[in-house]
TrEMBL record:
Localisation per UniProt entry: Cytoplasm
Keywords annotated in UniProt: Cytoplasm, Guanine-nucleotide releasing factor, Hydrolase, Nucleotide-binding, Nucleotidyltransferase, Transferase
Pfam families assigned to the protein according to its UniProt record, in alphabetical order: GDPGP1_C (PF26216), GDPGP1_N (PF26217)
Gene: GGP1
Stretches assigned to the GDPGP1-like N-terminal domain: 67-239
Protein name (database record): GDP-D-glucose phosphorylase 1
One example GO MF annotation: GDP-D-glucose phosphorylase activity
Similarity section: Belongs to the GDPGP1 family.
Major site of localization recorded for this protein: cytoplasm
Biological role: Specific and highly efficient GDP-D-glucose phosphorylase regulating the levels of GDP-D-glucose in cells.
PANTHER family recorded: GDP-D-GLUCOSE PHOSPHORYLASE 1
Top-tier EC class: transferase
């Protein structure tokens, strides 16, 4: 059993009291079976009808209400009520000089001198454990609204909506240890107490949230167990940042386009090897393919991270091995001393640093060196990719080999053109 010790992220003000289990009928207005079924939380009901993915932003203004009024407005309300552990808007942030423009943030408040906890990192799928902290123990004051499918072609908002006993509620709650403005958690079907594992319905829900936000600066992320997920209760993270992530600037090499219209590419010239899935005929077709990829990683015990970008139309998937290397003693002490946990945001290029020294000395070379440790080796990635493509029916093995050779030649030619490689 491989384990690492790390300081757990506190995402709820009730997390540190989780050991003191409350009986049913706790009376503190939580998200558990005792309180949520008789509560009336705000509800945003999005239209759940198949429709083509739009290349341009939405023409209607419903996204203004969802993102600016509802999500960010309510997030600021919780900030004014003192529910966060620190003021993230006061954290120093800078763009590191370099080709990709990695983003460094000094966030000393996220650590707060807590003692490290042991996490198992060699099992991506682990059973839900009700004795540990989970989101049913969150107080409803930390919840912004429910986010669920509705009827018709337009979204609807209700200030007070009773919970439908036949439709498990999904909620959006604040992360009390935010790393950026508007940092929230999307918790699908909270009462079902699902472990941290993606399924088709939950992944489609996350894409709907990205689509309803209607802004390229609002992204959702997912961390599997073994890839720096802190809590084994199904959740996505999301926040708003008005600049491009470095990974969004990285070049890609196309592998294929599926029958469903999904373009599949590989990341090029980026320190973490990954796959990129774009567009598709409908949001559901894109979601079905990427969720099948995530399920394959889960079933084959490969830790991974996911970034949902471009209003749900572009998705990055990164298999990773940093925690495994850490458990095996294969990560340098210099990198370990920074206490950076390279989860989805760090992999995407938003480096959350806990020490002022690291922030002041941050460079693109440091970011590249850290993230290179996260990535699978070229041989391992190619092996995983071949098995994954075959299992998901994305591309035939013989096609993949030919395309892979072409992409290598193309990437090499690009490197020569940009002066990265000098021919003797």
């Amino acid at each position: 059993m491989l384990t690492i010790k790390r300081v757990p992220t506190v995402v709820s003000n009730y997390q540190e009291d989780a050991a003191a289990a409350e009986p049913l009928g706790c009376g503190r207005n939580c998200l558990g079976h005792c309180c949520l079924p008789v509560s009336k939380l705000p509800l945003y009901a999005f239209p759940n009808v198949p429709k083509p993915i739009k290349i341009s932003p939405k023409e209607d203004r419903s996204s203004d209400f969802f993102l600016n009024t509802l999500l960010l407005g309510q997030w600021e309300d919780r900030m004014s009520r003192g529910l966060f552990r620190y003021d993230v808007t006061a954290c120093e942030t800078k763009v590191i000089p370099g080709k990709l423009g990695f983003i460094a943030q000094l966030n000393e408040g996220r650590h707060l001198k807590k003692r490290p906890t042991e996490f198992r990192v060699d099992r991506v799928l682990q059973p839900f454990d009700s004795s540990k902290f989970n989101f049913t123990k969150v107080g409803q004051e930390e919840v912004l609204f429910r986010f669920e499918a509705g009827g018709g072609n337009l979204p609807h908002y209700y200030d007070h909506a009773p919970v439908n006993q036949n439709s498990p509620p999904s909620v959006v709650a604040i992360n009390v240890s935010p790393i950026e403005y508007g940092h929230v958690l999307l918790i699908p079907r909270v009462l079902e107490c699902l472990p941290q594992r993606i399924d088709p319905d939950s992944f489609l829900l996350a894409l709907h949230m990205a689509e309803e936000a209607g802004s390229p600066y609002f992204r959702l992320g997912y961390n599997s167990l073994g890839a720096f997920a802190t809590i084994n209760h199904l959740h996505f993270q999301a926040y708003f940042m008005s600049t491009q992530f470095p990974v969004e600037k990285a070049p890609t090499g196309m592998v294929t386009v599926t029958e469903g219209g999904v373009k599949v590419s590989r990341l090029l010239e980026y320190p973490v090897r990954g796959l990129v899935y774009e567009c598709g005929n409908t949001l559901k077709e894109l979601s079905d393919l990427v969720s099948s990829v995530c399920i394959w990683f889960q079933e084959n015990n490969i830790p991974y991270n996911v970034l949902i970008s471009d209003m749900g139309k572009k998705i990055f998937v990164f298999p990773q091995c940093y925690a495994e290397k850490q458990a095996l003693g294969e990560v340098s002490q210099e990198l370990l001393d920074t206490q950076v946990n390279p989860a989805v945001w760090e992999i995407s290029g938003h480096m959350v640093l806990k020490r002022k020294k690291d922030y002041e000395e941050a460079s693109e070379a440091y970011a590249w060196r850290l993230l290179a440790e996260v990535s699978l080796s070229a041989d391992r990635f190619n092996e995983v990719e071949e098995n994954l493509f075959e299992a998901t029916g994305t591309v035939k093995p013989e096609q993949m080999h030919k395309e892979g050779e072409r992409l290598k030649e193309s990437a090499f030619a690009d490197a020569i053109a940009e002066g990265c490689v000098v021919l003797q």
